Amino acid sequence: MIRTMLIALCLFISAIASTYVQATPVDTFAFSSAEKQKRALSLAHELRCPQCQNQNLIDSNSPVAKDLRLQVYQMVEAGKGDDEIVEFMTSRYGDFVLYKPKLDPKTYVLWIGPFVLLLFGLIIGFVFVRKQRIVNNSQVELTEADQQELAALLKQDKD
Amino acid sequence: MKKLILFVPLMIFLGMGFFLYKGLFLNPKVLESALEGKLVPYFELEQLEQSDKVITNKDLIGKVAMLNVWGTWCPACKYEHPYLMVLARNKQIPIYGINYRDERDMALEELKLQGNPYEINIFDKDGRLGLDLGVYGAPESFLIDHQGIVRYRFAGPIDQRIWADTLYPIVKTLQEQAVKDGAS
Questions:
Q1: Which end of chain B is more exposed for a tag (fewer CB within 10 A), N or C?
Q2: Domain Thioredoxin: where (chain B) (predicted)?
């Protein structure tokens, strides 16, 4: 009996917790379809708030973010495509609002840089490994004098 | 040659160090303006002082001017205000105010108390013009040339230093250009 009550309580708490997690911050907006809502929310998640900088449009409470959020919702509702909405935002606030910057000459370093660094690392690593293997594999030739010295040293050690 | 390759990581390190060090002194709040080089966006809004008078983007064309986004709710605008008064008194540049997301009565009261540096005041109650200008806070100022093209955007309060170091040189060039083109 107590166990079932406990389980029920747990379920109840988790249900409340999950509704809190899903709650959007301030505004409510009526979408005509669930598909549109999903698209608008994912877009607003991908766009950065120009005011608070490290939050997306959904997370931010700033008035600008609220405006832009609403703008995204309205544009989705009006049947605009994702590209069109992103273009609307970047033409006003610059590429800054994109968490994932576009690939253009200004961002080549950003996109390709890590691969270039990786390539450099691999090349350098390769060169070092090769060099060491060559050193290990080459037989060291001992001259007669070296042999005698070695024998003398070993003998010394034994004594 | 083989020795040189040993210095490649050091070079990369120094290069990255240089850029990261420089990055320490950049202000992340300063965003590039997507609007520079473009016309002031289309708008039709009421004048702050007279609700029956409509101002459009065409009214801003003809002179080198400064658009200044402000609001009574914005403390930095209050800090900036005295310097705008100085600019207006010295007739340095016509300043067009954009009263952004504000209450008309409060804005008018503020101008009455603190002085009005604006030649025209546009009442952007719901921030639509601000949105088209890419405004993300206040105060923000836009320098426009005589053709109504946005040439420079400055985010933050203008003071003596900002005006002398940053804005005035641009204004001077724009004004010279305007004179050359035969505009006032």
A1: N
A2: 34-176
